[in-house]
Design brief:
The chain is α/β, with parallel strands linked by helices and 333 residues long. Helix content is 56%, strand content 9%. It is built from 15 helices and six strands. A six-stranded parallel β-sheet has the order 1-6-2-5-4-3, with helices on both faces. Helix 5 links the parallel strand 4 and strand 5. The relative contact order is 0.09.
């Protein structure tokens, strides 16, 4: 059975121990690994490897010895509790062995959890899990974590009391950094707050956030937000040479201008901007004002949708650079 992204997140948090197996696949190995770690912990609990209830093997091992996977699913453990066999970095070459294990699976056998990279719809591995009545297939996309995923990560780390402005700041960070870096930051926050009964604050996030987050991207965002249109081209060339992606730049710009909009719309006297560029961003928010910032966010949203469109043929970097120039011209009015 095929899991939608929303259903997949719910299943990862509470997997069914009676199912045959689960395939997790996607282009981002870090995101796939985090989901695999989550589902195995929820399925087996802590100490599964020490109690020999979890067997790990690589896709190449399964390809060389197809019986290895079947034997592992049938093995009887010494400790009570759910069991699983984890196959890492699977591909089409080991599909026959995985398909045979799925076909030979019976209630009481260890659950089969497989991770893989990008799989085409015609992939035998993917089709086998999607067509199996007692197995699941879940695709992991390169989208930033949702609010629900952020809340789950915070709850697992013991950081349940999070206010709206703090959650907004965490959401901005989650969109700006890699998922692994965000998970490490949440763990750092949990350690930072040990013995501190006060709710999580923006000051705490500023103390634990990666200091080098999107440093190069911030350069071009500062140029855009400060209406220095003539400097956009050279900075963009530098970012292209360093491997920046159009979607990544667009996401970073959206994060920046949303933060400016929140600060410009703030009525409490404590704008929710933090980080090394806080003073400059506060000045930018006052100069732009809520109305022009709303126009800027709309422009960035349209550009992001255009970049992700299936029929998009124009160079992505050219679209982003044009959007940045339009923003700079808007800010100079």
């Amino acid at each position: 059975m095929k899991l939608s992204p929303r259903d997949a997140n719910a299943y990862f948090a509470k997997p069914d121990a009676d199912k045959t197996g689960l395939l997790i696949y996607g282009t981002d190995a870090m995101r796939v690994a985090l989901k695999r770690q989550q589902v195995l912990t929820a399925l087996l609990g802590e100490g599964a490897e020490e109690e020999m209830r979890l067997t790990r093997m690589g896709g190449s091992d399964v390809r060389k010895d197809p019986a290895l996977l079947i034997d592992a699913t049938k093995a009887i453990g010494f400790f009570p509790g759910a069991r699983a066999v984890f196959v890492e970095e699977a591909n089409e070459t080991c599909a026959p062995a995985v398909l045979a294990a799925l076909e030979g699976w019976h209630p009481g056998d260890a659950q089969i959890v497989v991770t893989a990279g990008a799989l085409k719809p015609t992939s035998k591995l993917r089709k086998a899990f999607e067509a199996h009545p007692q197995a699941y297939a879940a695709a992991i996309y390169d989208n930033p974590p949702t609010r629900e995923e952020i809340e789950t990560a915070l709850r697992d780390a013991g950081l349940a009391q999070v206010t709206g402005d703090v959650m907004a700041a965490l959401n901005d960070l989650a969109q700006a950094i890699d998922p692994g870096d965000f998970r490490q930051m949440v763990e750092k926050l949990a350690l930072y707050k040990i013995g501190d009964p006060e709710p999580l604050s923006l000051t705490d996030i500023a103390a634990c956030a990666p200091t080098s987050t999107e440093a190069d991207v911030d350069d071009v965002l500062m140029v855009v937000a400060e209406a220095r249109a003539h400097e956009i081209g050279p900075v963009m060339q530098k970012l292209v040479a360093q491997g920046a992606t159009p979607v990544g730049l667009c996401i970073g710009a959206m994060r920046h201008f949303r933060a400016l909009h929140r600060a410009a719309s703030d009525t409490s006297g404590r704008p929710t901007i933090f980080g090394p560029n806080r003073d400059r961003m506060l000045a930018q928010s006052r100069r732009w004002g809520p109305a022009k910032l709303e126009t800027a966010i709309t422009l960035l949203t349209d550009t992001d949708l255009q970049l992700r469109s299936a029929g998009q043929n124009a160079p992505g970097m050219a679209l982003v650079e044009r959007a940045f120039i339009r923003l700079a011209m808007l800010g100079s009015r």
